[in-house]
What we know:
Strand order of the largest sheet: 1-2-5-6-7
Radius of gyration: 25 Å
Shape: globular
Mean pLDDT: 85
Order of helices and strands: HHHEHEEEHHHEHEHEHH
Number of strands: 7
Distance between the termini: 60 Å
Amino acid sequence: xxxxxVVWYTFIFGxxxxxxxxxxxxxxxxxxxxxxxxxxxxxxxSDKPLTISQCLNKERVSGLESATDLHLRKLSEYxxxxxxxxxxxxxxxxxxxxxxxxxxxxxxxxxxxLKEFDKFGIAPVVIVEPVSEWGLIDFEEFSTGFYDSWIxxxxxxxxxxxxxxxxxxxxxxxxxANLPYWNHGNASPEDFSVVVNKYLGTMKKYFxxxxxxVLLNSATYDTDDFNWENxxxxxxxxxxxxxxxxxxxxxxIPGFSWIPPADSTNSTGxxxxxxxxxxxxxxxxxxxxxxx
Length: 292
C-alpha cells in the first residue's frame, strides 16, 4: 500500500473515531464535544461534585441530608448528583444474634433504622447475612434449630419496638447461599430450604404481611468447592424446592462476568450476560416458588 493511501485511511479512521466519541460524550453529558474544554475547566475550579442532567422526572425525597442513618445520607448525595429523585428502595444489612441479649440489642438497632426509613418513605430490603460474632453460620447447625429461640427473641423485640408489617419491608435471609464464601460445607442444597423456612417462618409469626425473598447466585458451586473458577450454571431448583411458598414473595439472582487470572491457561472467561445472568435458571426457580 502506498504511503498516501496509509495517510488517507488513517485520516478516515481518526474522523470516524472522533465522531463515535462525540456521540458517546453527548449521550453521557447532554453537551456537545466542543464544550469539553469548558466543562473540564469548570470541574477544576469547582469544589462541588459534578452533576448531570436529571436522572428522573420526579422530585427528590426531601430532608435526607439530615437523616441519622448512613444509607439515607448516601442516598441524599446521589440525589445531589442526579439533581432529582433516585430511588425509594434501599438495601440494608444485618446478621445473626448469638444469644438472647444480642438478639434484643440487634433488634432495637435495626428498629431505629426501619423507623427512619419509614419517616422518609424509603422501603427497606433487609439482607440477612449468615454471620454472627463468632463467625460464619453453619447451615447444617442452623437447620437443627440451634438459633430458633434467638430468632424468635429478635422478631418479638422488633414487634415490641412498635415496628409494623409495612415498616419491615422485604427480608432476604442468607443471600447467595450457593456461593463458596459461606459455611455450607456440611449442608446440602435442600438444607437451604430448611434455613429459609425457619427464618422467614419466625418473621411471619410476628409480621404476617412482611415480605420475604430468596436471592441465589446465578452460578452454583459444590458445597466443598472454594475455587471461584468452578461455578456452574445449573438448576437452582434443589435450593428452593422445599421452601414454603407462603413465606416467599419474590426470587432474584445476581450474576457477574468471570475474568480469569492473567496466568490462567484453562479458562476463557464468561462474558455473555445470557450465561452469567441466566434468566432461564431464575425463571425456573421462581416458577417452583410460585413467585415473580
